Amino acid sequence: MVKRHSVEKANWSSTREEWYQEECNKILFDKQLSININDNAVYLESTDKNDLLLHITKPKTKWYEIWLKLKNI
């Protein structure tokens, strides 16, 4: 039985988003930071600051968007 292409693409997208989430967690851990996601707003939190990092434009790719911002910090 052959899987539909759309199912394969959905599974690949899910795996890719999990990878971006893991990479975000590594960056945050290394820099001793955390994030707070409130609706579509993502805040970067440190011991003394709480700054807006970004507004998520596509909920399906939120971890990719967050990773793009975090990798340059």
Q: Which structural class should the secondary elements be placed in?
A: alpha+beta
| Total strands | 3
How would the global form be characterised?
elongated
SS field, number of helical segments: 2
Strand percent estimate = 15-25%
Low-confidence stretches: none
Task: Please tell me about this protein's structure.
By secondary structure, the chain is an alpha+beta fold. Helices cover about 50% and strands about 20% of the residues. It has one domain (about 5-70). It has helices at about 5-30, 60-70; strands at about 35-40, 40-45, 50-55. Strands 1-2-3 form a three-stranded antiparallel sheet, with helices on one face. Strand 2 and strand 3 form a beta hairpin. The N and C termini lie far apart (about 45 Å).
Index terms:
73 residues; alpha+beta; three-stranded antiparallel beta sheet
Annotate the secondary structure layout.
Layout: H1 5-30, E1 34-38, E2 41-45, E3 50-55, H2 62-70
Antiparallel strand pairs: 1-2, 2-3
Quick synopsis:
The protein has 73 residues and is an alpha+beta fold. The chain is 48% helix and 22% strand.
